[in-house]
Specification:
Largest sheet: 9 strands, antiparallel
CATH class: Mainly Beta
Helix content: 10-25%
Order of helices and strands: EEHEHEEHHEEEEEHEEEEEEEEE
Number of helices: 5
Number of strands: 19
Number of domains: 1
Shape: globular
CATH superfamily: q2cbj1_9rhob like domain
Strand content: 25-35%
CATH architecture: Sandwich
Bound molecules: 2-oxoglutaric acid
């Protein structure tokens, strides 16, 4: 295992090979959906190794490797731009939301929630057999439903920074907080220059610390220690077409895009069969919930994509 400190502005990073230390409206061509032929080819690696699963359990994140071929990546990239172009088109199916997450025109992060509702290639992606199999292996879940998906597109040169956070505390309508897992699929090579993610190994075991993270000054790394535990920051570059998984409580954020390349990626947020609805919270997916407070979160808006070792058939709920 090699670990070395990188001298980066704003982020204190540990670059790792293998397992991190224990201690510590641009237009491209616009297509109508019906003209896009999608064939998501399955890549050879169907499952994760025991070492990858151990790594996820210990660190709260792991790179799952290549899952998409070039043709599929091209189709998905084109679809991201098409959905952005079509945002005011009353005849085009729309995602749940499309906005600049950073709220700054100088440092935009285009966020599209539930692009799968507006794009059939993305609907295929949320059912991607290898991705859902891997998420099931890592989470140990008996069932996986899509809570929502999310594009984060950081345009070249300007793309903004995403502050340190944990996912599930930002999903107040879900309980308990450790029953969700995200598959983050890179549509461009994501690296230090164009705003890849950074993660803190082991932080998924430290509970809900979102208030602490929220209070941290922006643009700086977390402190060296937290409640007596060493805090390492690991840079997580991900090649296009590869998937990277993180636990719903893992501390993470992503850098700015200062490069001449865009950084497009899609996160699919899965929830296990133990996830229930908390009506006291708010979230953009709340209007689509059809169950009562405290009940298992199921429903048409939350597709069942994996159950008991096999890809799920359509769920009647
Ligand atoms: O795409 C990014 O930069 C961050 C994504 C993220 O925070 C997530 O998927 O939970």
């Amino acid at each position: 295992m090699i670990a070395k400190e990188l001298n980066l502005t704003a982020w204190r990073c540990v670059e790792t090979e293998g397992i991190p230390p224990k201690k510590n409206k641009t237009s491209l061509k616009c297509f109508t959906e019906s003209k896009i032929k999608v064939l998501i080819k399955q890549m050879p690696t169907e499952t994760l190794t025991d070492q990858q699963i151990d790594q996820y359990r210990r660190n709260g994140f792991v790179n799952g490797g290549l899952v998409l071929d070039e043709a599929t990546i091209d189709t998905l990239r084109t679809e991201v731009l098409r959905v952005i172009d079509d945002r005011d088109n009353p005849d085009a199916p729309q995602p749940v939301s499309l906005r600049n997450l950073s709220k700054s025109d100088d440092a935009p992060i285009w966020q599209i929630v539930n692009i799968f509702e507006s794009s059939s290639p993305f609907r295929e992606l949320i059912n991607h057999q290898q991705i859902v199999n891997m998420a099931a292996q890592l989470s140990g879940a008996q069932e996986l439903r899509v809570w929502h998906d999310q594009i984060q597109y950081k345009p070249k040169t300007l793309g903004g920074r995403l502050h340190w956070h944990q996912d599930s505390p930002l999903w107040p309508t879900l309980q308990p907080k450790h029953e969700q897992i995200s598959a983050w699929v890179a549509l461009d090579d994501a690296d230090m220059d164009n705003g890849c993610m950074y993660m803190v190994p082991g932080s998924h075991q430290w509970g809900n610390q979102q208030p602490f993270l929220q209070e941290m000054p922006h643009g700086v790394a977390p402190p060296d220690t937290f409640e007596g535990k060493p805090v390492y920051t690991v840079m997580c570059p991900v090649k296009k077409g590869h998937v990277h998984f993180h636990h719903s409580l893992t501390w993470h954020g992503s850098g700015t895009n200062t490069s001449s390349r865009p950084r497009r990626a899609v996160a699919i947020h899965f929830m296990s069969e133990n996830t229930t609805y908390d009506a006291s919270g708010n979230h953009s997916m709340k209007p689509f919930v059809t169950v009562s407070d405290g009940e298992k979160l199921v429903g048409d808006a939350f597709p069942l994509v994996w159950t008991n070792g096999s890809k799920a058939k359509k769920e009647v709920s």
